[in-house]
């Protein structure tokens, strides 16, 4: 009895010491990882009004729903930009956050949900030391204005900072069991200039493949950032995105990002999307953009496609965490996917891993073939971004990741940077109409003087305005005169126009694609539940819709293998390998299983050369 009484004080003492240690560790930990709070005052809230055109306005900023996308004008100092962004766009941000938190809970086991936030806070605690003051002010004022309903585990300021590093952190997490390596290699783009285009302009295009949240496609946002003292920037992304992944500034400088991988880590640089925003707000030439990029070591490796519409110069900058290389066009043409091609990164283990676990090689080959075929125009550029064939024109089922257009683009854009024009996709993915946006006209509409930027336009740009000016200077001709009507029609015909929807949308075929994808998802879910019979049925239904479907064949093979029908599974996996599946975890599992059975067939595919 005495010894038991003595043990209780010892237990209490141990608990007190443990509790004190936890409190002490928290007291030390949180100040080390807490981001710096800007020493500024929050702008006074301005009333929100809606004008006769349905445009929402507050202070100098405005938001309107156009045909298939939102257009957001941000004007003022950094703090005003952040506060007004939250005031006008909060409703969409809430929807995005609801989707993100639901995905976070569904995707990650509970222990990971609890452990991951403090791990990320510690690993990236120096990230914010490398952000410009104005970006910290913009993010902080947004957070202070935003009506936060997801304050755990991070408050809105911390979450806003980490959202902008989502691309960077995802790249770092590739290889973990809950992160598909193929998402690190998805986007595809091109550039053509001079004699490689029909009118000598600088034409660029890219598919931004980020399929996590369909909301980003249906509710995409085109931002016009016009911060005091900075070059205005046009950016395509989503609500609450201050960074840029596809954008052009009023000086005619274009920057877009394609994910890549290389050896080396850096946790003290800025998130790459915010780095691109910095470049576009400061750079007036491609050389200035390259200088900024070279001076700041980013968190992860990416390919930066940078062009200057004033000169037509364009290049792909392969930027690792501690080195950079430039790749120039060949005969005025350039294509990019996700693997690195310069000598600087030759033999890099990180790059080889990306080639092995993604579809970058197949998409790169196909893009090279299409871009090299003939001179480019905006219309032909769009056709390339909608291409659903494999290298050498090989037929594929819809959604095959080896296609340039795997129907997973959050946004897709074509730009005539010489004219300062941007064509932006509308949902679904690349299949809706592409809406034309004139950056210089948007500046005028927003009350921003476009004349300084028009002054630097090269000769031969914006031909429709030259025609209109010639018409206004000509002698008036009587109404109904054929000559007058002809001049007017010629001028109108050269006005930039929206581009039509893709064939899947215009023919109604997209509904069939959605049904096919639903069958594939059902088959995958049934396999996870060990319901192989139902999985086999769903996979066969998907195959009936698109007989070339590698995914439908793989799922059948997996179901047959789980049922012990190994010979039939072997035959299904042979068919799968002949249907040109993308490299990745599923492909590697099939190859390994067949190798173990000494039943791996020889299948020729041109992208294998990129692994040798």
Q: Main traits of this protein?
A:
3 domains, Penicillin V Acylase, Chain A, 612 residues, 15% strand, 11-stranded mixed beta sheet, alpha+beta, disordered N terminus, Serine Threonine Protein Phosphatase 5, Tetratricopeptide repeat, 17 strands, 6-stranded antiparallel beta sheet
Describe the overall structure.
It is a single chain. This protein has 612 residues and is of the alpha+beta class. It folds into three domains: 110 residues; 257 residues, Penicillin V Acylase, Chain A; 104 residues, Serine Threonine Protein Phosphatase 5, Tetratricopeptide repeat, CATH 1.25.40.10. It has 22 helices and 17 strands. It has an eleven-stranded mixed beta sheet with strand order 1-2-3-4-7-8-9-10-11-12-13, with helices on both faces. It has a six-stranded antiparallel beta sheet with strand order 14-5-6-15-16-17. The longest helix has 32 residues. The N terminus is likely disordered.
Question: What is the mean pLDDT?
Answer: 89
Strand order of the largest sheet: 1-2-3-4-7-8-9-10-11-12-13
Instruction: Summarize the biggest pleated sheet.
Output: 11 strands, mixed
Shape: globular
Catalogue the unreliable spans: 1-5, 477-493
Rg, nearest Å: 27 Å
Which class of the largest domain in CATH terms? Alpha Beta
Q: What is the CA–CA distance across the termini?
A: 75 Å
CATH topology of the largest domain: the name is Penicillin V Acylase, Chain A
Helix amount = 40-55%
Overall number of domains: 3
Number of E-state strands? 17
CATH homologous superfamily designation of the largest domain: Penicillin V Acylase, Chain A
Q: How would you classify the helix and strand content by structural class?
A: alpha+beta
């Amino acid at each position: 009895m005495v010894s038991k009484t003595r043990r209780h004080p010892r237990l209490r003492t141990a608990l007190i010491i443990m509790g004190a240690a936890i409190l002490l560790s928290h007291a030390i930990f949180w100040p080390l990882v807490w981001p710096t709070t800007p020493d500024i005052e929050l702008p006074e809230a301005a009333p929100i009004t809606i004008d006769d055109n349905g445009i929402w306005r507050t202070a100098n900023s405005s938001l309107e729903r156009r045909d298939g996308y939102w257009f957001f004008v941000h004007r003022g100092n950094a703090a005003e930009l952040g506060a007004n962004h939250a005031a006008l766009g909060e409703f969409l941000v809430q929807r995005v956050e609801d989707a993100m938190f639901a995905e976070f809970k569904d995707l990650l086991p509970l222990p990971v949900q609890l452990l991951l936030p403090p791990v990320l806070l510690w690993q990236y605690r120096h990230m914010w030391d490398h952000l410009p003051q104005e970006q910290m002010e913009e993010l902080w004022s947004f957070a202070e204005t935003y009506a936060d309903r997801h304050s755990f585990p991070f408050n809105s300021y911390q979450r806003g900072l980490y959202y902008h590093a989502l691309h960077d952190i995802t790249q770092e997490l590739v290889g973990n069991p809950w992160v598909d390596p193929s998402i690190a290699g998805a986007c595809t783009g091109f550039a053509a200039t001079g004699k490689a285009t029909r009118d000598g302009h600088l034409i660029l295009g890219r598919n931004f493949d980020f399929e996590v949240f369909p909301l980003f496609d249906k509710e995409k946002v085109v931002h016009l950032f016009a911060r005091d003292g900075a070059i205005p920037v046009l950016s395509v992304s989503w609500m609450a995105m201050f960074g840029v992944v596809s954008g052009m500034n009023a000086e005619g400088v274009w920057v877009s990002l394609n994910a890549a991988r290389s050896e080396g880590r850096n946790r003290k640089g800025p998130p790459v999307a915010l780095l691109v925003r910095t470049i576009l707000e400061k750079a007036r030439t491609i050389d200035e953009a390259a200088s900024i990029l070279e001076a700041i070591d980013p968190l992860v490796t990416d390919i930066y496609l940078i062009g200057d519409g004033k000169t037509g110069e364009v290049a792909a900058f392969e930027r690792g965490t501690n080195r950079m290389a430039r790749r120039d066009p060949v005969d005025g043409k350039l294509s990019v996917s996700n693997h690195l091609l310069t000598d600087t990164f030759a033999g890099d283990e990180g790059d080889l891993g990306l080639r092995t676990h993604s579809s970058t090689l197949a998409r790169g080959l196909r893009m090279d073939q299409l871009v090299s075929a003939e001179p480019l125009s905006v219309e032909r550029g769009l056709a390339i971004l909608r291409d659903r064939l494999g290298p050498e024109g090989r037929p594929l089922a819809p959604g095959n990741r080896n296609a340039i257009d795997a129907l997973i683009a959050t946004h897709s854009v074509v730009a005539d940077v010489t004219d300062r024009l941007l064509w932006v996709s509308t949902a679904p993915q690349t299949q809706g109409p592409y809406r034309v946006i004139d950056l210089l006209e948007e500046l005028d509409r927003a009350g921003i003087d476009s004349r300084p930027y028009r002054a630097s336009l090269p000769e031969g740009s914006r031909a429709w305005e030259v025609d209109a000016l010639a018409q206004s200077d000509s002698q008036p001709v009587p109404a109904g005169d054929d000559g007058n009507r002809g001049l007017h029609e010629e001028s109108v015909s050269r006005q930039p126009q929206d581009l039509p929807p893709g064939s899947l949308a215009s023919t109604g075929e997209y509904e069939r694609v959605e049904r096919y994808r639903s069958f594939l998802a059902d088959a995958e879910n049934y396999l996870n539940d060990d319901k192989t019979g139902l999985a086999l049925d769903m996979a066969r239904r998907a195959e009936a819709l698109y007989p070339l479907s590698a995914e439908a064949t793989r799922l059948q093979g997996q179901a047959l293998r789980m049922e012990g029908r190994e010979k039939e599974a072997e035959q299904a996996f042979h068919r799968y390998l002949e249907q040109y599946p993308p490299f990745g975890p599923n492909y590697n599992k099939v190859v390994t299983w067949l190798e173990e059975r000494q039943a791996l067939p020889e299948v020729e595919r041109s992208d294998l050369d990129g692994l040798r």
